[in-house]
Amino acid sequence: MPSDAMPSDSLTSLDGGVDGYGSAIRKRENTQGRDLSYPPLPEPLTVPVYDNHTHLEISDGEHPLSYREQLDRASSVGVRGVIQVGGDVETSRWSAACALIEPRMLAAVAIHPNEAPALDAAGTLDDALAVINELAGQPRVVAVGETGLDFFRTGEEGRAAQFRSFEAHIRIAKENNLALQIHDRNAHEAVIETLLKVGAPERTVFHCFSGDADMARLCADHGWYMSFAGNVTFKNASLLRDALFVAPRNLLLVETDAPFLTPLPYRGRPNAPYLLPNTLRGMAAHLETDVSLLSAQITANTELVYGRWDAEPVTAAHDDPGPDPTPRGGIA
Ligand SMILES: [Zn+2]
């Protein structure tokens, strides 16, 4: 679940699987008024980068792509790998399982802050957190996320559950020595207070950074990473670009949050890791720096936060029976 999901952006479950075909297990329902075709491939980057936050479990567009097709397209334009991010038990399991068989993918696992209130009300939040803790110990799971606070989509009544869940995720990240990927929507102060109260993990990332220049300075003071998404290219995002401008280069990361937040000039169309170069080029233009220099810096930062994509081997090779449009069974 993305930072910019609108109320119309509901997701439905699909019967997908992780058996080498890589069918998505969620579908984006918001089709109204959008161009549902995938944008063209950008010019390849000279220096490769990583997309440190994406949702390949969510299908979008008229002709959805499997995660392998997504990663093939990404590779062809210099996007070397992705962090595949879960937001509930099922998508976290899917993320961890895919990362085990796909060398270009590492995984992040968590209960999204907008999922926590319903689980808490049902009395199952602790069970879900126990699954996340277990997944956090698996090979090629390199981050706990996305977790955090969302005061945009969740009202007052759900906040206690969000805080409880966020604090638990911070502890899981530290106990497993993993990076933390934070979802912060309309909740900057509360997120920062919670991080300071519980103690932030050594490698803490604000996914889809949405603060202003002052917040960027504060994050810099604490050594927290700021990951910019396609919305940094939007016309109305001058505060975000101010934040980018003051963020130290050694704390910058880049992401798609696909299928959401498609960078200009394709805003509204399905987003995908292969469109990361558009965001990166927008950032480099704003910073008046060379795209390759920025790519090299961000790649170094990304590997410091998550390690190298080949640090832990995949445990099984893909079967390669070719494209198969048939949805497969879930991974239970
Ligand atoms: Zn996300």
Quick synopsis:
By secondary structure, the protein is α/β, with parallel strands linked by helices.
Low-confidence sequence ranges: 320-332
Largest sheet: 8 strands, parallel
Small molecules (ligands, ions, cofactors) in the structure: zinc ion
Shape: globular
| CATH level-two architecture | Alpha-Beta Barrel
**What fold name stands as the CATH topology?**
TIM Barrel
- Which superfamily, in CATH terms, is the homologous superfamily? Metal-dependent hydrolases
**CATH class membership:** Alpha Beta
Structural domains: how many: 1
Structural class: alpha/beta
Strand order of the largest sheet: 3-5-6-7-8-9-10-11
Mean pLDDT: 90
Can you write the helix and strand succession as a string? EEEEHEHEHHEHEHEHEHEHH
The helix content is 25-40%
Strand proportion, as a percent range, falls in 15-25%
Task: Tally the helices.
Answer: 10
Q: Measured on Cα atoms, how large is the radius of gyration?
A: 18 Å
Determine the N-to-C terminus distance. 20 Å
What is the total tally of β strands?
11
Region (Disordered): 1-23, 313-332
GO cellular component, one term: cytosol
Pfam family, one: TatD_DNase
GO molecular function: hydrolase activity, acting on ester bonds
